[in-house]
Amino acid sequence: MLRSLRFQLPALFLLGVVVAGIVSAAIALRLFRSYAQDRSRSQAYTELKKESNGLTQLYSKRAGLKLLSPSALELATGDRIYYRGLDPFPGQKQARFRPLPPKAVDQRVVRRRGLRLFVFQPPDAKTKLLAVARPLLVGKRPLGTIVVAKPETVLAQRWLALIERLLIAFAGGVLVAAAFAWYSSRRITTPVLKLSEAADEVAHGNYDVDVPGGGAGEIGVLSERFRQMASRLGEAEALERNFLMTVSHELRTPLTAIRGHVGALREGVVTDDEMRAASLTVIAAEAERLERLVGDVLDLAKLDAHRFTVLQEEVDMERLVEQAYVTFSEEARRRGIDYRREVEANPVIVSDGDRVLQIITNLLSNAFRWTPDGGRVDLALSATDGSVYVCIGDSGPGIAPSERERIFRPFWSRGGGGTGLGLPIARELAAALGGRISLESSAEQGSRFELMLPTRPR
């Protein structure tokens, strides 16, 4: 549960919100406390100034007369009243003030005719007091100093109330953030969990899975890529099965022919020299066919493993094209195909001649395979701007747009015939030699493959 993405995402989001909220609240409280204390002290001092001014005026005018006791005034104002100096009300015990501690305020300040704002802590109190000291004058003669004070805890209560409100707001914000985090995690993890289920299906060999759409964003891109991957894996498995069946058929056909002729020769069924020579010719041809098939498979494996060795030698392209052209001349004559050759240049390139011939041969073999009897096959050679171009055109049925990429995949063959290795090997060899193969095709004009090779290695 704790390792689940559905839990970790909202937990991480909520943790970030809580940490950010705590830091922000701490900074705000610190700033507000400083501001509130300064403002509260200012207001408190203003109130204390007014009270001290009123008390000094009252006691100055009523000095020596009977007056309301300071304790009663303290109850009325909620403040403490202290005094230092000569007794302004001799003989009146109820008019006694609280004595001001000796070290609470500087004596020079007490005697000065002005206000003094200070903080002190009397021995009988557990908290500090904010105080205003004002001289008590009778006429122009100073008798002492009246000090009006109130506890600092009263100021602290003002911002403590704000803390309670902030805590309530913070708790509400955490609940809202938790709900949003849960909703967001559901939105994110639901398609991910569905992709995980689809991956399990693919792992068990079921490639036709229903991949959920993730909408826009990264999840949608991931879903689309997974859908493409599953489709490619299904195609790859189908191609592998098709390849095994095709290779089995391709191997069985020449092996059956070879076994039949060898059996006839061993049993003495073929006694005529001419027939014996014909059987040996068939055996040799089928053996070459087997060798070619095995060579194609090995070449493709080397290309996939990047263990293919490319030679560097001077290659006369005109002679090479002529050699490839002659290879298929007999088949063209037998099938009545209009087989044309056009050479516009005589370039010499530095490359692997055997591999270049293999590419051209594979492309010509594909062209003759799909060209009907009495059709047309063209072979052209040209050179321009440091590149050599070999074009093979045919009058076959053309290649559908949906199949133009598939024909270069290993083991995929149109119509289910052949091994599906000729064109993939040709394209991989062209890339290994620094060139490329391009394709143009239409149902009306057939297909046209173009091999481009650099005259010098790049």
Secondary-structure element order, N to C: HHEEHEEEHHHEHHEEHEEHEE
What is the residue-mean pLDDT, rounded to a whole number? Answer: 76
Radius of gyration: 52 Å
Strand content: 15-25%
The largest β sheet comes out as:
5 strands, mixed
Q: How far apart are the first and last residues' alpha carbons, in Å?
A: 56 Å
Instruction: Estimate the global geometry from the Cα principal axes.
Output: rod-shaped
Assign a percent range to the helix content. 40-55%
Overall structural class, as computed from helix and strand content, comes to alpha+beta
H/I helix tally = 10
Task: Give a verbal description of the structure.
Residues 106-113 have low confidence and may be disordered. The chain has helices at 5-61, 70-77, 107-111, 153-203, 218-267, 273-304, 317-327, 329-335, 353-370, 422-432, and strands at residues 80-85, 98-99, 116-120, 129-138, 141-151, 313-316, 338-343, 348-351, 376-384, 387-394, 436-442, 446-454. With 458 residues, the protein is an alpha+beta fold. Helix 6 packs across helix 10. The chain is built from ten helices and twelve strands. 55% of the residues lie in helices and 18% in strands. The strands form three sheets. Strands 2-1-5-4-3 form a five-stranded mixed sheet. The radius of gyration is 52 Å and the shape is rod-shaped.
